[in-house]
Amino acid sequence: MSKSTDIRIVEANCSFEPVPFRAPLKFGGRVVDNTELINVDITVETRDGRLADGFGSMPVGNIWAWPTDQLAGDQTESAMKEFTQRVIDLANAFPEYGHPLDLVFEISAEYHHQGKALALQLGLDEPIPELAQLVAASPFDAAIHDAYGRANDVNSYDALSADFASNDLSEYLDEQFEGEFLDQYTSRAPKERMPLYHLVGALDPLTDEDIGERIGDGLPETLPEWIAADGLTHLKIKLAGDNLDWDVERVLAIERVAAEAQAARGCEQWLYSTDFNEKCENVEYVLEFLERVREKSPAAFDRIQYIEQPTSRDLKAHPELRMHEAAKIKPVVMDESLVDYEALQTGREQGYSGIALKACKGHTESLLMAAVAQKFGMFLCVQDLTCPGYSFLHSSSLAARIPTVAAIEGNARQYCPAPNKKWAKTFPGMFDIQDGTVKTGALDGVGLGF
User: Fold this and answer.
1) What is the mean pLDDT of residues 349-362?
2) What is the tens place of the pLDDT at every residue in 17-73?
3) Residues 18 and 154 in one domain
4) How far apart (Å, rounded) are the C-alpha atoms in residues 391 and 398?
5) Which of 181, 139, 130 is CA-nearest to residue 160?
6) What are the b/e assignments for 130-158, b being 16+ CB within 10 Å?
7) CA 420 to chain centroid
8) Are residues 48 and 101 in the same domain?
9) CA-CA distance, 315 to 348, in Å (whole number)?
């Protein structure tokens, strides 16, 4: 069923932008000290001939999206960049008009084949994983939603109803969503402000004693300095997952340091999330971790808002890794394992009680998974991929439009803040953090909102 608001892709292009890190970030046993942004520009045309441009940006994120011992980091990064170009080629060859949900749905049907074919052509020992495909394609996904809103002079989050979309959600999900559209699961205005989750990486210094040599670039370096400078109330803690003593002590140490810093500024309430990046062998590790933290510091235990992806992302290969007992204590959230609706259903069966939305998995996919999570009463959070500049604004706009999301993660300001500078002039409340929140109410313009 055609609509006058439908668009077709006139031209799409991608480019790459190196991003250095001011400090290394360790997670899942790996260290990242640089990345590249994938930037996509797209021009679209409505049925009545109106043209508009859209833009999308996202870090390559290969270390997170494609962890492997079979290939070097530069191989996976190069393959993901080439995959982006393949997506752009598919987009440029796609002739149909439609809503972005349908255009992305149709084009993404080719991703699996492209992932296998490209790996063979590059002589890689393994195909490009589905998560890596989603990340590489996500700037295109963002750009087409952005362009659609601009072509129709509307905020893209306000163009998800039956007035704009030709198909209801059952087209992309299943019959449980028949007659429903995404406007039922998104807000018509962004939240005015949202708490910012600050990352405490495994290598990050907690106190002056942890610093060998200061970076000296004027930004905070210890946890108390960050808390004081940004008024932080939400801390995301990266943990080892294979060293229980270290993990427990890390949380306790952060609790001691944070308690002193928060007391100094008169703050009595703050929260933690804990991220094991799949490294826990089983749910018993998580249960023992929680019990030890509760025994040694009830206050620290109470502050834990949720637990993120404790065991392997490969849910089908590990049906024995069930999270039911842990989820009775704290929400247990899917992250790396969440790549589509089928994965979400498998995760629910295996005891996961929440999901982490990430713009780097695709704007379309994020909106659909947000709808599913709300319908099934799951805990929802939005996290980033160390997203600087435009990509952080995109991630934040997503969080600000999903009703049940209470906070937004943003750590590029800690590790790679350089691309933030040009956007901070227009959206200072998104990058100049003073009260522990980001001013998402400003993300209300046409397109993706900024």
Assistant:
1) 98
2) 999 999 999 887 888 998 999 999 999 999 999 999 999 999 999 999 999 999 999
3) yes
4) 11
5) 181
6) bbbbbbbbbbbbbbbbbbbbbbbebbbbb
7) 17
8) yes
9) 11
**Which residues does 334 contact at the CB level (< 8 Å), separation at least 6?**
309, 343, 344, 347, 352, 354, 355, 356
Taking the alpha carbons of 206, 207, 209, 214 in that order, is the dihedral positive or negative?
A: positive
- CATH number (domain holding residue 234): 3.20.20.120
Burial 256-284 (b: 16+ CB within 10 A, else e): ebbbebbeeeebeebbbbbbbbbbbeebe
Return the number of other C-beta atoms located less than 10 Å from residue 215's C-beta.
11
Q: In a 3-state reduction of DSSP, which class is residue 40?
A: strand
Q: Evaluate whether 362 touches 28 at the Cβ level (below 8 Å).
A: no
Q: Report the chain's mean pLDDT, rounded to a whole number.
A: 97
Q: Pick from 128, 149, 166: which residue ends a domain?
A: 166
pLDDT surpassing 90 at residue 237:
yes
Give every CB contact of residue 74 below 8 A, 6+ residues apart in sequence: none
pTM over 0.90: yes
260 vs 224: CA distance, rounded Å: 8
CATH of the domain at 70: 3.30.390.10
Place of tokens 């319908």: 375
* Cα–Cα distance measured from residue 379 to residue 332, given in angstroms and rounded to the nearest whole number: 8
* Number of structural domains in the chain: 2
Let me know: does 66 contact 128? Beta carbons within 8 Å.
yes
φ/ψ bin of 190: left (φ > 0), alpha (ψ from -120 to 50), beta (otherwise): beta
Q: Which residues pair with 274 in a beta bridge?
A: 237, 307
* 48 CB burial (10 A radius; 0-12, 13-18, 19+): exposed
CA dihedral (222, 224, 229, 233) in degrees, to 10, reads 120
Range of the domain at 326: 194-442
Instruction: State in Å, rounded, how far the first CA of the chain is from the last one.
Output: 30
> For residue 1, is pLDDT > 80?
no
- CA distances for 268 relative to 194, 264, 421, 433, angstroms: 18, 10, 32, 19
Cβ atoms 22, 204 nearer than 8 A = no
CA distance linking residue 172 with residue 180, whole number of Å:
11
